[in-house]
């Protein structure tokens, strides 16, 4: 897989913009964080990835190249162990809608949310 022509980190918007020869994608920090290719998220041989919740406000501290084949993304919640290959970044961009909807459905089914301050138990009065 060819490296992207351009990678732009917009910290204020919490987005990573990636331009390939034939496609371009803008991926949110939250999306990249919950779909991290790290063992922490992918699991250790599990068939279903670990459900990461409460990352609505996560940002990206830095982006570094990892050789000529990938990016290392350092998030402001301390997560920094995922290596995002060019193929995986392209897949994340191309499959965004399906991935995101499946993620939201998994959150709902687990009674979890995107907001770290959300609680499954609401007390009124």
TrEMBL record:
The record's section on InterPro entries has:
GBBH-like_N, GBBH-like_N_sf
> Can you provide one Gene Ontology molecular function annotated for this UniProt record?
metal ion binding
Name of the molecule in the record: 1-(5-phosphoribosyl)-5-((5-phosphoribosylamino)methylideneamino)imidazole-4-carboxamide isomerase
Q: Which organism is it from?
A: Microbulbifer thermotolerans
Kindly state which keywords UniProt assigns to this record, in alphabetical order. Iron, Isomerase, Metal-binding
Domain Gamma-butyrobetaine hydroxylase-like N-terminal, residue spans: 7-90
Highest taxon listed in the record's lineage = Bacteria
Alphabetical list of Pfam families matching this protein: GBBH-like_N (PF06155)
């Amino acid at each position: 897989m060819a490296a992207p022509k351009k990678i732009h980190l917009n910290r204020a918007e919490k987005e990573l913009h990636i331009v390939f020869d034939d496609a371009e994608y803008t991926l949110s920090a939250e999306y990249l964080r919950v779909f991290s290719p790290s063992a922490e998220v992918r699991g250790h041989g599990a068939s279903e990835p670990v459900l990461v919740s409460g990352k609505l406000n996560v940002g990206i501290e830095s982006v570094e190249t990892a050789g000529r084949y990938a990016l290392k993304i350092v998030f402001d919640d301390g997560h920094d162990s995922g290596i995002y290959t060019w193929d995986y970044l392209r897949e994340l961009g191309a499959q965004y809608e399906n991935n995101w909807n499946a993620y939201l459905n998994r959150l709902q089914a687990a009674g979890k949310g995107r907001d770290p301050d959300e609680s499954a138990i609401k007390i009124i009065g």
